[in-house]
Automatic annotation (TrEMBL):
<dbReference type="GO" id="GO:0005524">
    <property type="term" value="F:ATP binding"/>
</dbReference>
<dbReference type="GO" id="GO:0005829">
    <property type="term" value="C:cytosol"/>
</dbReference>
<keyword id="KW-0547">Nucleotide-binding</keyword>
<dbReference type="GO" id="GO:0004639">
    <property type="term" value="F:phosphoribosylaminoimidazolesuccinocarboxamide synthase activity"/>
</dbReference>
<dbReference type="GO" id="GO:0006189">
    <property type="term" value="P:'de novo' IMP biosynthetic process"/>
</dbReference>
<dbReference type="InterPro" id="IPR001636">
    <property type="entry name" value="SAICAR_synth"/>
</dbReference>
<dbReference type="InterPro" id="IPR033934">
    <property type="entry name" value="SAICAR_synt_PurC"/>
</dbReference>
<dbReference type="InterPro" id="IPR050089">
    <property type="entry name" value="SAICAR_synthetase"/>
</dbReference>
<dbReference type="InterPro" id="IPR028923">
    <property type="entry name" value="SAICAR_synt/ADE2_N"/>
</dbReference>
<comment type="pathway">
    <text>Purine metabolism; IMP biosynthesis via de novo pathway; 5-amino-1-(5-phospho-D-ribosyl)imidazole-4-carboxamide from 5-amino-1-(5-phospho-D-ribosyl)imidazole-4-carboxylate: step 1/2.</text>
</comment>
<feature type="domain" description="SAICAR synthetase/ADE2 N-terminal">
    <location>
        <begin position="6"/>
        <end position="235"/>
    </location>
</feature>
<keyword id="KW-0067">ATP-binding</keyword>
<dbReference type="Pfam" id="PF01259">
    <property type="entry name" value="SAICAR_synt"/>
</dbReference>
<dbReference type="GO" id="GO:0009236">
    <property type="term" value="P:cobalamin biosynthetic process"/>
</dbReference>
<comment type="similarity">
    <text>Belongs to the SAICAR synthetase family.</text>
</comment>
<dbReference type="InterPro" id="IPR018236">
    <property type="entry name" value="SAICAR_synthetase_CS"/>
</dbReference>
<keyword id="KW-0436">Ligase</keyword>
Length: 253
């Protein structure tokens, strides 16, 4: 049997050549890493949950007209996506202070920010994804000023959408990271949301209790990561109400 071609393997996902030109298959692994892979574990069921959650968010974005790479889910761990030229940036949007912003500015976690703040990190594991300014982005040719305007606009639309979807189920969207890619239509280039949107790349706090429901549970040893992700999926209606990851995640539809 012919083996499909692996295009790229990252910390949490693998990309394979897709069935048609211009497509990839994105496989979600159970591996969890933090602090630039210095902390590692395998969390059974995480890949299944993130595949389904990313599908849920990307489809929602499609439904409100925000272009993204998602085409369709193939199975429990795989989805068909559009091939893009990834811009080598992590685009981070923050609504409340947390994580590296709190550390950098000595600001208490949970402090509301005056407005959503968009920032960039250069995607480079060896360097630990350093924060970079727009000046760096343009000077080094990763994106031009028009691209940056489009990236900010995409990031803020994703922020408004996700903030509303999470708030409706009692979850505060503290911050998140997206990646953006280029697609070409003849000579015309468009920027679309790529990679994944899941609790791996967001900070999610329960509105009432403040309980963390995201990868900080793993980063900071706060309990069972798959339990936290299952809770997010259950609230969003992606998992049946009574299911836990221990019985293996069961998908609705
Ligand atoms: P911070 O800069 O505070 O560490 O992260 C800000 C937000 O971006 C958090 O929601 C965090 O999960 C996300 N983020 C930052 N870097 C990465 C990364 O390398 N991978 C993932 N999955 N998310 C990241």
């Amino acid at each position: 049997m012919a083996r499909r071609k692996k295009i790229y393997e990252g910390k949490a996902k693998i990309l394979y050549e897709g069935p048609e030109p211009g497509t990839f298959v994105q496989y979600f692994k159970d591996d969890a890493t933090a602090f630039n892979a210095q902390k590692k574990d395998v969390i059974e069921g995480k890949g299944v949950l993130n595949n389904r959650l990313s599908e849920f968010f990307m489809q929602g974005l499609t439904n409100i007209g925000v272009p993204n790479h998602f085409i369709r889910r193939i199975n429990m761990r795989e989805q068909l996506i559009r091939q893009v030229e990834i811009i080598p940036l992590e685009v981070i949007v923050r609504n409340f202070a947390a994580g590296s912003l709190s550390k950098r500015l000595g600001m208490e976690e949970g402090t509301a920010l005056p407005r959503p703040i968009v920032e960039y990190s250069y995607k480079n594991d060896a360097l630990g994804d350093p924060m970079v300014s727009e000046e760096y982005v343009v000077a080094f040719g990763w994106a031009n000023q028009q691209d940056l305007d489009d990236i900010v606009s995409l990031a803020l639309r994703v922020n408004d959408f996700l903030s509303g979807v999470f708030y409706a189920v009692g979850i505060k969207l503290v911050d998140f990271k997206i990646e953006v890619g280029r697609i070409w239509d003849g000579d015309f280039m468009r920027l679309i949301v790529a990679d994944e949107i899941s609790p791996d790349s967001c900070r999610l706090w329960d509105v009432k209790s403040g309980r963390k429901l995201d990868k900080d549970v793993f980063r900071r040893d706060l309990g069972d990561l798959a339990d936290a992700y299952s809770e997010v999926a259950r609230r969003l209606g992606v998992l049946p109400a009574q299911t836990t990851h221990l019985t293996k995640p069961t998908l609705i539809n």
